[in-house]
């Protein structure tokens, strides 16, 4: 069977962000219309708008940021099609952190670059002593308050990696109050009375919901709405 080669320019329209006109980085898809953009581009756009910038469909009148999610498949396709893009993005992040004088997180700052690591001849397995368990990540101080007919956590103040997701936090709460991590879907987590999406990271919540407020980031948990 003959292989058919195609020119990159023939698929450029499918793998570029219509907001910045560059190749997709941290490809993020709107769940309502399935249009995809760079994460930083669409988050910035939705801070002032409630419609898709491409088709103008209303995403949500009040909380459009709850209806976007990281598209791992699309990002993998972009990195496979565009030579050296992932490596260049990794180096760009390192250079940015160096210029700003901030530490570069060991597991990288963006979703799409987590799978990339510079090549190394050292193939020895990493010992437990070398692992920092995300301690080198940017940290977020969180206060978890009970709202509803659930047990109050004995330890409500937490210091967590900014990369931790709401889904992971729900599993932690389910383990503490139900002694069963698999019941995390029975829990809602809210910020400013708004239910947070399961894929939101704490950094994303802090920037979009708690930007001008003092720490800690105040989150409430309650029984999932269908369980009330």
UniProtKB/TrEMBL annotation:
Coiled-coil intervals, chain numbering: none
Which portions of the chain have biased composition (kind: Polar residues)? 105-126
Q: Which residues form the RING-type domain?
A: 17-56
The family database entries (Gene3D superfamilies) matched by this protein are listed as: Phosphatidylinositol 3-kinase Catalytic Subunit, Chain A, domain 1 (3.10.20.90), Zinc/RING finger domain, C3HC4 (zinc finger) (3.30.40.10)
**Which UniProt keywords are listed?**
Metal-binding, Nucleus, Zinc, Zinc-finger
Output the superkingdom of the source species. Answer: Eukaryota
Output this protein's name: RING-type domain-containing protein
Q: In which organism is this protein found?
A: Lottia gigantea
Molecular function GO terms recorded? zinc ion binding
Coarsely, its chief localization is: nucleus
Region span, Disordered: 105-135
Q: Does the keyword section mention Metal-binding?
A: yes
Task: Output the Pfam families linked to this UniProt entry.
Answer: RAWUL (PF16207), zf-C3HC4_2 (PF13923)
The entry's cellular-component GO terms read: PcG protein complex
Where in or outside the cell is it found?
A: Nucleus
> Could you tell me which SMART domains the record lists for this protein?
RING
Asked whether the keyword Zinc-finger is assigned, the reply is: yes
